[in-house]
Design brief:
- Residues 649-746 form the HTH araC/xylS-type domain.
- It is a multi-pass membrane protein.
- The structure is a single chain.
- The chain has 27 helices and 16 strands.
- It has a six-stranded antiparallel sheet, sandwiched between helices. A five-stranded antiparallel sheet has the order 8-7-11-10-9, sandwiched between helices. A five-stranded mixed sheet has the order 13-14-12-15-16, sandwiched between helices.
- It is flat.
- It starts with a helix and ends with a helix.
């Protein structure tokens, strides 16, 4: 039945299209055809105007001034070559130009064609002299000026030189290629039949796209009809030898004249595709109607299967059994709009990030991501980003701030990005005052990298030392934090920068805790200097015991004692960090022995990586308490409440599946097998909300979804979420601050 019904509109459409092809559709296509020709004629007019402007420009150029009068071009061969080259440039500026030549009158006329030659042919000289004596400074003509083909007439544009002179000494002559002009004329219409021609209003110029003569019967007949119209432009139907032609004409405003362009195409060329398509539609529709009975059973089985598969992918958790009233294509449209909106947002973000390409390149360079590039490629890219690297040497600094825990409330953990941003601004300002080229990278973790580009061969130790001291004082005074600055050796190769940066980052971890500010020079750093602090094994065992027995307060106190034992006088940052990493390994082992999987407890987080990225001593303890102790203690507590949580999960699932019904605390308690008092008390403790508030919130969320994504009436929406219409309006306005109707209007506007 579907195919039968689908075949009938096709037949009707074919009949209507076939009948309209000779009437209204023919007029519409003719109008579209005429608009297309007018648009293409404007393009041709623009090409001719550009050619006129180009020649006028050169006519007033100093190359063609009075200095050419009586000039000896044989002796002054440089001037001769310059004129020849100029004419060649003009000749190649437009595809329609066949030749650009310069004629200079005198006792011995001279012709640049475009090479220099002295004219001796009196017949040819007389033709050029007629161009000079035409009484016009600039004009179009149609002359035979080719020395080799003196009978070949070409469309020619003439401009006397010097431009604006009352006594011209010669003329710039541009001859157009007849074939190219005919090709441009042929572009006026996409059809091969018919005729396109261009002519001067007085009949002095004439060019045909198909090579027909001006006195041919068809051209003369069309010209007569155009002249009888008496309009500047227009179109009409013209009968000739049993054919109907669509004729479009108009005028070009040329210098001191008007040109007429005419395009005549058989109307059958315009309507033939429509007639053919209508016949094809009729044939295909008839065939479909005949085959409908044979294919109906198979099509009804298979036709919906692609939509069904697509819906299963779009809504994998929805049941297709009860979706008879759902518009699947509306759902597909919503999904498509969602994906399109996400695509536009991603494109906008990409455009916003394009301005940070330079910073991104430096970040990749310091991190070693550009290791595959050669030294020449790196230099080329940096110069392209407007760094001056030729004859330069490079120094890398790593600046790290410490002491955020001792800032008396000015900043706290979590403000590292803000503090780093402030320090980077100081670094950039001071570096700009001390060095010609410097670039700073913000790592947003109290650390930043600085690339200094200095003149090659000049000493740089003292300037870097002065810069480091000023930066240290500024950070101490304004941010109240301590500064560690690691300075690399000087380098002459850009490819050595990533390794140097890795070295200064590693060197910064060897700072001493008792020093307020430190400047570490890589060339003077001794990694084996200083004694290693002892590891407090006793405190580790006591901490693990408190952790296993659930004594959270004791565990936190022992953790502080453990870190204090690591941070003895002379200890380095890396020593404390390694000690805390060792303690983390012992804690993970204890957790595993207790029957708890660390991956599940810590949600797959790489705790070793997080701890290894931290630099602040106080941050070690806070991180350990938040990321290790608290989850483990919570797990111990949750084990006793597991059964209660399972019951509450069953209650929430029941409410989510039956929110549209008249459910209560009593029937929900009966469903999960408990009493209403226990359900109410446990529901509040587990979810943080009482039973009625959770049910109301669930119903309103479903109602807002229906208001946004459907056209259901407000009372229908209220019924589908389990409310009476009047009560639904009151509770919605009370909790959302607006009526359901207003909420739908605002969501549609967004």
């Amino acid at each position: 039945m579907f195919l039968v019904v689908a075949g009938i509109p096709g037949i009707i459409t074919g009949i209507l299209v076939y009948s309209m092809a000779g009437g209204r559709l023919e007029k519409e296509l003719l109008k579209l055809h005429n608009d297309q020709i007018e648009q293409r004629s404007l393009n041709m007019d623009k090409q001719l105007s550009n050619l006129e402007m180009m020649l006028a420009h050169w006519a007033f150029d100093s190359r063609f001034d009075e200095s050419l009068r009586g000039h000896d071009f044989v002796r002054d061969f440089e001037k001769t070559r310059d004129i020849t080259n100029t004419l060649l440039v003009m000749q190649g500026s437009n595809t329609m130009i066949h030749n650009v030549s310069l004629y200079l009158r005198g006792d011995q006329p001279i012709l640049f064609y475009p090479e220099y030659s002295a004219l001796n042919d009196r017949k040819l000289i007389s033709r050029y002299e007629r161009l000079m004596d035409a009484g016009k400074t600039t004009y179009w003509t149609q002359q035979a000026l080719d020395p080799d083909q003196q009978e070949k007439r070409e469309l020619t544009f003439v401009h006397l030189i010097p431009g604006g002179s009352s006594n011209p000494l010669g003329a710039l002559i541009v001859r157009l290629d007849n074939d190219q002009v005919a090709e441009v004329l042929r572009t006026l219409t996409p059809y091969a039949d018919g005729e396109n021609f261009l002519m001067e209003a007085g009949g002095g110029l004439y060019v045909s796209a198909n090579g027909n003569r001006m006195d041919s019967p068809f051209v003369k007949a069309v010209r007569g009809e155009v002249e009888s119209e008496g309009k500047a432009r227009g179109s009409f139907l013209f009968e000739w030898n049993g054919k109907t032609y669509a004729v479009t004409y108009g005028y070009f405003a040329r210098i001191m004249d008007n040109w007429l362009y005419v395009s005549a195409s058989p109307i059958t060329n315009i309507t033939a595709p429509v007639v053919l398509i209508s016949k094809v539609i009729l044939a295909v529709s008839a065939s479909a109607l005949l085959l409908a009975v044979l294919l109906a059973w198979l099509a009804s089985k298979r036709m919906y299967s692609p939509v069904k598969r697509l819906m299963a992918n779009l809504q994998p958790h929805a049941s297709l059994a009860g979706m008879g009233g759902v518009d699947e294509f509306a759902i597909i449209e919503r999904q498509w709009q969602h994906l399109s909106r996400e695509s536009r947002e991603l494109n906008a973000k990409l455009l916003e990030q394009l301005s940070h390409v330079k910073e991104s390149f430096l970040h990749q360079l310091l991190q070693g991501y550009l290791y595959a590039y050669s030294e020449e490629d790196l230099r080329s890219r940096m110069e392209r980003y407007r760094w001056q690297v030729h004859g330069k040497q490079f120094v890398v600094l790593y600046v790290h701030l410490t002491g955020i825990a001792a800032m008396e409330g000015k900043f706290k953990f979590g403000d590292e990005g803000l503090v780093t941003f402030a320090s980077v601004n100081m670094i950039e300002e001071l570096a700009a005052a001390h060095f010609e080229q410097s670039s700073t990278i913000n790592f947003h973790d109290l650390g930043s990298g600085v690339l200094l580009i200095l003149p090659e061969g000049e000493p740089c130790t003292e300037p870097i030392k002065v810069f480091s001291e000023e930066l240290t004082q500024a950070v101490n005074r304004l941010l109240n934090m301590r500064v560690t600055i690691a300075v690399s050796r000087t380098m002459n190769r850009i490819s050595d920068i990533p390794l140097a940066f890795e070295g200064v980052k590693h060197a910064a971890s060897f700072r001493n805790f008792e020093h307020d500010n430190q400047i570490i020079e890589m060339e003077q750093l001794n990694y084996e200097d200083g004694a290693e602090p002892p590891y407090p094994f006793t405190l580790e065992r006591e901490f693990l015991q408190a952790l296993r027995t659930g004594q959270e307060a004791d565990a936190r106190a022992l953790l502080a004692d453990f870190q204090d034992a690591l941070s003895v006088q002379g200890a380095k940052a890396i020593d404390v960090q390694q000690g805390m990493l060792h303690l983390l390994g012992s804690v993970q082992h204890a957790i595993l022995v207790s029957g708890i999987q660390p991956n599940r407890l810590f949600k797959g987080a790489n705790l070793y990586e997080q701890l290894s990225q931290m630099k602040e001593p106080a941050a070690f303890r806070d991180w350990f308490e938040a990321k290790v102790i608290a989850p483990f203690m919570q797990e111990l507590t949750n084990r006793s409440d597991c059964q209660v949580k399972q019951l509450m999960e069953q209650a929430m699932i029941y409410m989510q599946q039956n929110y549209m019904l008249d459910i209560s605390l009593d029937n929900c308690a009966d469903h999960i097998g408990t009493n209403p008092f226990f359900l109410s008390k446990s529901f509040k403790r587990v979810t943080g909300k009482n039973f009625i508030d959770y049910l109301t919130e669930l119903r309103l969320e479903k109602a807002k979804e229906l208001l946004r994504e459907s056209e259901l009436k407000i009372n229908t929406v209220a019924e589908q979420v389990g409310y009476q219409h009047s009560y639904f309006n009151r509770i919605f306005k009370k909790l959302e601050g607006m009526t359901p109707t207003r909420y739908r209007e605002l969501s549609r506007a967004e």
